[in-house]
């Protein structure tokens, strides 16, 4: 090695939900074993690092949020480097490696990382290691693990090159050019041999990381007749393989039980994103029939007594709890049911080996255990591999321990993806599947992420209905399966459905024990403005709206707003409006059927095109089944509006099964109408996106 001291590098992370931070912490943990000192900071802590004077290599881990935006913790950093007055050599001294996190279900995949990467390059910074882009759609670990593995050699080579430059600089200052040229050759040879020896060291270190175990026999939790893998059972070659498992994450939280007297904090104190409003639900309506495949509800909120404001196209967030039955079940499994109402204090362990740990901001300083599990922690979260690794140490049965090791190992990546990620397994499912696993409370608090508020599109106009806010949603259903013993509803949609049951079924007896009418249900919300997904500022501009299923939500607000503007400004010119809506059955889930008919009759909606994917037709020419098929039928109109009339195109709904198909259809239409190749049409679509004239509000 070139020196005995650990070599420092700057490690920056920018996270929205904690994934980038967790990966940065994994890098920090591994750094010491490879001879490095990772100086780790959140990107928002601009007072703790200075890239303008940074001489050591920089490693950046950054996620993406919203519609391709950098996370909140990176906003100041991005704004600073986006300053167009900075010279192109501003960061010529900087060498860095960047790992971007994203989800290919969304259009602007890893755009947070790409934005930072591109701008650093424009300012003269150089890569010492290739950029990695990890996809949460297929599993971040597929890119993250090998990227981290390759980081150490890249860092060593960067430091050796840095050392060589320093030596060459001193040589040039004291000797002739000819002598320095000779030394340059010698240094190149020395560098080459050092790099080769480092490669060998890394290979040896890698092999020592393999966990050599005595092979475990058939696990008691699985039948010996099992020939297919499952959550609790593996098959060869995995069941007979030595395993590379992650390092055990150090514990860093300390939980102390106190008395059972006092009050829990207000929900508003849990939200760091701005002002929270507690508003009553004044109406609930079934939008689908009982025999529809999905159940869609419309809720009305009374915001008249608040300063909450919104535009059609905006979204807002609902603060929701975990399912109470699941919380009670978890308390029972942990053996803490009797302490549910005890207040607990959660603090950072004084002797923790985890670097840079601060108090968890989403855990109140003082609240009951039940409150924490209900309102603060995402108990439905898919367990990360670091969590599985920690659970190994809490498991007494040898077979169960081995299976958990497999699921968090590199060799078990496929099983992890299939039986954990894709099956939406949560901590409750794991504790049922591995009954000898008895984790501590502090372990759960450390590894379960913050319970996130759920986002919904506004389905109304404040101009059309002052003081009211409407939104719609499908009640999400997770059926029982081999990895999940019982069916479950979505965390927020299931809770909302239960909450408004008295409004949906006013004559049905409730469990209200107070007598009389049940009190009006209230929920806590906060705004999440959408800076782009709005109506054009110029009302004469034509627009096309594509929203199957609940994707129609923002467009109802658009049409309400447009109708009110038409009533108030009779002299204004209004462009044509197209709505393409799709659902399964005309008589089961045709949402807002009567409202849409009225919009057409009063001239607010110029063209309404509807398709039904599951209805049979006796027509000689089969009608279109999907919204993208409808668009192709009206290809000339789509091309005219986008290319000649500078119109706007909006898409809202499911990303994977709809939005991608719509963008493909638009590319085909542009290619056909312009008589150009597909690549040229894709460039036109990219230009429309850049100009904010092709806009998406999609979810996976």
TrEMBL record:
Fetch the Pfam families from UniProt. Answer: FAD_binding_1, Flavodoxin_1, NAD_binding_1
Key words, A-Z: Amino-acid biosynthesis, Cytoplasm, FAD, Flavoprotein, FMN, Methionine biosynthesis, NADP, Oxidoreductase, Phosphoprotein, S-adenosyl-L-methionine
Record GO biological process: cobalamin metabolic process; folic acid metabolic process; homocysteine metabolic process; methionine biosynthetic process
How is this protein annotated for GO cellular component?
A: cytosol
Query: CDD domains, alphabetically?
Result: methionine_synthase_red
Query: Is the keyword Iron assigned to this protein?
Result: no
**Which InterPro entries is this protein grouped with?**
CysJ-like_FAD-binding (IPR003097), FAD-bd_FR_type (IPR017927), Flavdoxin-like (IPR001094), Flavodoxin/NO_synth (IPR008254), Flavoprot_Pyr_Nucl_cyt_Rdtase (IPR001709), Flavoprotein-like_sf (IPR029039), FNR_nucleotide-bd (IPR039261), NADPH_Cyt_P450_Rdtase_alpha (IPR023173)
Question: In this protein, which residues make up the domain named Flavodoxin-like?
Answer: 9-152
Enzyme Commission numbers on file: 1.16.1.8
Compartments where found: Cytoplasm
Coiled-coil residues are none
The enzyme class is oxidoreductase
What GO annotations for molecular function exist for this entry? Answer: [methionine synthase] reductase (NADPH) activity; flavin adenine dinucleotide binding; FMN binding
Cofactors, names only: FAD; FMN
Q: Which residues form the FAD-binding FR-type domain?
A: 274-536
**What SUPFAM superfamilies does this protein's entry cite?**
Ferredoxin reductase-like, C-terminal NADP-linked domain, Flavoproteins, Riboflavin synthase domain-like
Catalysed reactions, semicolon-separated:
2 cob(II)alamin + A + 2 H2O + 2 H(+) = 2 aquacob(III)alamin + AH2
Query: Assembly state and interactors?
Result: Forms a multiprotein complex with MMACHC, MMADHC and MTR.
Annotated protein name in UniProt: Methionine synthase reductase
Recall the taxonomic lineage recorded for the source organism. Eukaryota, Metazoa, Chordata, Craniata, Vertebrata
Q: Which gene encodes it?
A: Mtrr
